[in-house]
Amino acid sequence: MKSNGVSKVTVQTLAKMKSEHRKISMLTAYDASFARLVDQAGVDIILVGDSLGMVVQGGGNTLPVTMDEMIYHCRSVARGTERAQVVGDMPFMSYQASMEDGIRNAGRLVKEGGAEAIKLEGGADYAELAARLVKIGIPVMGHIGLTPQSLHAMGGFKVQGRSASQAKKLLDDARALEQAGCYAVVLEGIPRELAQEITAAVSIPTIGIGAGVHCDGQVLVIYDLLGMNEEFRPKFVKRYDNLAVRIRTAVEQYITEVRNEQFPDEEHSFSKDAPVRPEAATPYSSARAAAGGGVVERDPDATGAACIPLPFPRKK
Ligand code: KIV
Q1: Distance 11 CA to ligand 1 centre (A)
Q2: Which atom of ligand 1 is nearest to the CA of 89?
Q3: What residues line ligand 1, using a CB cutoff of 6 Å?
Q4: Which helix (H) or strand (E) holds 206?
Q5: Which of 209, 222, 224, 236 should be mutated for ligand 1, with most atoms under 8 A from CB?
Q6: 90: Cβ–Cβ under 8 A, 6 or more apart, which residues?
Q7: Cα 47 to ligand 1 centre (Å)
Q8: Ligand 1 mean position to 223 CA, how many Å?
């Protein structure tokens, strides 16, 4: 499937990647700007995770996140994404009470949020719902192991599947989801040996988080990967940057320059005599050029904000 000349990642692409032993990369995003960057970097799947309840909303867990919030963030991510598959997470109590709730809410994520697949937490108990959704035409990604929506039942965010009986249950869950027609399954917070066993036992891709290297793919929360929260240092997260420090440094510099009247200088302000500089258009001019819009010819009185063109090539 092609959009703007870019080959879209689909359920079929991901199945092929598993069969060819090519690893799948997945990251979360919650808004169009981050979605655009991770998509441009080449990630295969963007998950609009209910983790947004923690990293965006500042909550202690994911339980309060609502359907309307998920749809809002999904829509933003879908607008910023061209190539990656966009997966919308089903929040707590959007599918647990009834089959009808599950079908209606998964439909809303696709119809209103622009998601191309949905993810739901739970194993064999949700296989029937998964099968119904697949039949309707909604691809389903399962999620087993440490399932954050069951935080209170698990007694905290704890590694699952350490005992033989738990491990067998997780293997059975993965098989049940595969049987139901799920196209992939997230394995969260389980021993790497068990993740390896499950990955070998099912034909669908496994995507690990805190589940070792033998999964078919990996997922991380983008804010964790970028080091946005200095206090959060779980064993399974590798930080690829330290944005907490870098953002604070940039903001401190801005505050200093405002206080010292170093900003805005002549370069960043307007004068009644200044010539028109079309190349100094708007922060979004490169996106507009990419969309075929070219450089914006500036009105000398325009602030930039007034002539911000469509920031993202794809409009949903
Ligand atoms: O909500 C989320 O971000 C997730 C991933 C961490 C798998 O479920």
Answers
A1: 19
A2: 1
A3: 28, 47, 49-51, 89, 186, 188, 209, 219, 221
A4: strand 206-209
A5: 209
A6: 50, 70, 102, 105, 106, 109, 118, 119, 120, 121
A7: 7
A8: 12
Atom of ligand 1 nearest to the CA of 119: 8
DSSP string over 9-41 = P-HHHHHHHHHTTPPEEEEE--SHHHHHHHHHH
CA–CA separation, 284 vs 313, rounded Å? 11
- Residue 151 Cα to ligand 1 midpoint, Å, equals 13
- Residue 160, SS3 per DSSP: coil
Question: Catalytic residue among 188, 193, 252, 266, which?
Answer: 188
Task: Return the structure tokens found at 120.
Answer: 């739901």
**How do 2-3 and 6-7 pair as beta strands?**
antiparallel
Tens of pLDDT, residue by residue, the chain (316 residues):
655 678 999 999 999 999 999 999 999 999 999 999 999 999 999 999 999 999 999 999 999 999 999 999 999 999 999 999 999 999 999 999 999 999 999 999 999 999 999 999 999 999 999 999 999 999 999 999 999 999 999 999 999 999 999 999 999 999 999 999 999 999 999 999 999 999 999 999 999 999 999 999 999 999 999 999 999 999 999 999 999 999 999 999 999 999 999 999 999 999 998 666 655 545 554 454 444 444 444 555 566 554 434 445 554 4
188 is catalytic: yes
Indicate the pTM of the whole model: 0.90
